[in-house]
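Note to self: the last two entries modelled the partners one at a time, which told us nothing about the interface. This time every component goes in together.
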Amino acid sequence: MFAVRFDRFGGPEVLRLATAEAPRPEPGQIRVRVHAAGVSPVDLGLRSGRTPMSAQLPLPHIPGVDAAGVVDDIGFDVDGVTIGDHVFGIVDLAQLGGASAQYAVLQRWAHKPATMPWTQAGAAGTGIETATRALDLLGLEPGMTLVVDGAAGGVGSIAVQLAAARGIRVIGTARADNHDFLHQLAATPVAYGPGLADRLDALSVTQVDRALDVAGAGSLPELIDLTGDPAAVVTLADFTAPTYGVRLSMGQLAGEPDGRHGLPAAAQLFTEGRFTVPIEAAFPLEKAADAHETAEQGSRRGKIVLTVDDTHEI
Ligand SMILES: NC(=O)c1ccc[n+]([C@@H]2O[C@H](COP(=O)([O-])OP(=O)(O)OC[C@H]3O[C@@H](n4cnc5c(N)ncnc54)[C@H](OP(=O)(O)O)[C@@H]3O)[C@@H](O)[C@H]2O)c1
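The predicted structure of the combined assembly is written out below.
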């Protein structure tokens, strides 16, 4: 098969389209012929060598943790899916990648709604799982008010929609350019950075019940002040969380229950017109270096995704 790989750590330029051995599904896994694969912050960190997990990465490595495609092989102990089904999902996270390729093995998946574009499906998996897990941990109940810090990015833009679908009033932080975008996702936008409480006052928000930090930009003390309780705050990206008594959720990598049940639930919301996976940009697989470079530029609306077909030349 063909795949995007890197054989040394570095900038986006270390990514190459190359041939690789197609993976085989283990028990409980399926293999897909990939149509689209998401680009996530974890892919950028592993490729750069900056993340501690890079140390355990055998090279060469195929990046990518999210993919959507057509099922072409099924491991033992798998029910509810047949060859030819259209699915989207997440690789085995212990492998830390494998999705940016012609074939990928998925550990968790759901059926892709017929009307969901491949680009959205390919970028959806970890965003939905992560957002679902975080919202579950927050113990949200309909009518509550939730602040999402970093609401316009890949995980945040999914979290605000899934929270709104639970009957939550959502206030999302983003740069000014993204405020209309957050309105479209049924969130009330507000600028991020110090002074959030004053800006919420100006919006006549008198009570914040829960807060989700997706950005890891140092807002935990302010989010605790807003909610009045460290237990009412969850972060996905701030490693200082234990200092404040705040839950840092890392999912399967930390042995936590995951949010995989969110995948079919989000697919159902999509068919009802209540959920979408915002896509900032799509690149063909051979432009993976451009995709990583764009992803590293930071501010965006939703996900960056690679498209995969049979025409890629190595
Ligand atoms: N723990 C887990 O299980 C888990 C799982 C997935 C991801 N993550 C982590 O979660 C983080 C976000 O992932 P992502 O895919 O959503 O990243 P992303 O698409 O790059 O989005 C990050 C968002 O942060 C916002 N931002 C930038 N500076 C900010 C600030 N000072 N205050 C508040 N928001 C700010 C940006 O908003 P604007 O565009 O509006 O500037 C951007 O939309 C990453 O660190 C990732 O590694 C953790």
